[in-house]
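Why predict the complex rather than its parts? Because the way molecules touch one another can change local conformation, and only a joint prediction can capture that. The input here totals 450 residues.
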Amino acid sequence: MNEMIALILIVLAAGLLLGFTLLQRKKAPVFREIAAFTQLRRAIGLSVEDGTRLHVSLGWGGLQEAHGAATLAGLGMLRHLVELTSVSDKPPVVTSGEGVTAILTGDTARSGYKAAGAEEAYDPVTTRLSGLSPFSYVAGAIPAIRDENVSLNVLVGHFGPEVALLTDAAERANALAVAAADQPSAQAVLFAGLEKPLMGEELFAAGAYAGAGAAHQASLQTQDILRWLIILALLAASGLKLLGVF
Amino acid sequence: MRVLAAGVAIAFGLLVLAGYLFPLGTLLQVRLLLVQWAIILAAAAVVVGAFNLLGVHWKKIRTKQKDSALSALLIIALVFSACFGLALGPNSDFMRAVLDAVVVPVEASLMALLSVTLVYASIRLLRRRADTMTLIFVAVAVFGLLAAAPLPIGKIPLLSEIQFWFVQPFASGGARGLLLGMALGSLTAGLRVLFGMDRPYGGK
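Output of the joint prediction:
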């Protein structure tokens, strides 16, 4: 039964995603403003202008685990950030906390430079595996925030409450931090620690707001439709329960 | 090459997905085999990551960057752990003692530092963003702490009951809402990779 529901949901989502992607090519949608993304766009421009560095942190999640989607969202964001900052003297430094993610990080950064026509600017030591456990990852990422002339930190991926140590390090280094995490505990911590936090599924909106293409925009529309369907299903189930149907 | 990589990723992704949705006979076997391969590849990737870490810190030493002495210490510790770990095995008494004496205390101290950082962030929150949501957030956090923490005066009357009837339903409802949103986001992110729209392996 569960497999059948999952199959229906996947087929429905796939149909919507493909349909909206084709429609996006004709007309781009308009999204509501999210303060953190507006702040991010401004900060990217400033970091390129004043010759400071961008730090992208993808957390310590891997792709072969349940929270791999958060890492995928981070990789999508990284690709566009690298492309946007490829003209800067200081290439972005990227930290991750899992072996496969670290390899994909290097590959993604390289393809970002290639798309910007600056493949020679890619330096493998700027994409790092900084630690394999939550706290060792944080301990390895803090020196990058503190010592490498970083003015903007983008933390997108799988984090727990230890992400507070990274946002605190950014604040101490007078650097801006824009962060989105998949764990509710990390989101609570980010709500307390950042001026403009990203909550819930805004993590997955990062690509669409960064201009990552029609598929990312179509994803947001698909999520909206599925969300409404789930709300209706929950209300219907509650109503039926109240009526004693089941 | 990029097309081949995308083709392999999509084909293997569909096979694993089919194995989850129809866990029968050959499909299940194929799914388990592919997942095992992925685990082996992930372990190999850690070794690649360790060499990357070595390269980063070696460059720091070579270019005499700030704290290069710490980088030297890291490389010595890395080589030491790798040599003794390979020679004695990760479950030997010596390696366990190293883990218990160095890694565990360092992580515990970071955990302690985290709690101080969180308290500090909560205090700054009211100064930074004093709006309704912030006040609700702080009030619920304080309320939850008072209801859950062991206090010297014992339990405050009615606090647990209020938490159970008023705070808990809103908190768990909100958390479920967040998790549903995350699940939908994960679903579409996975589908984008499955369709080759996102290629984190060097493509788009």
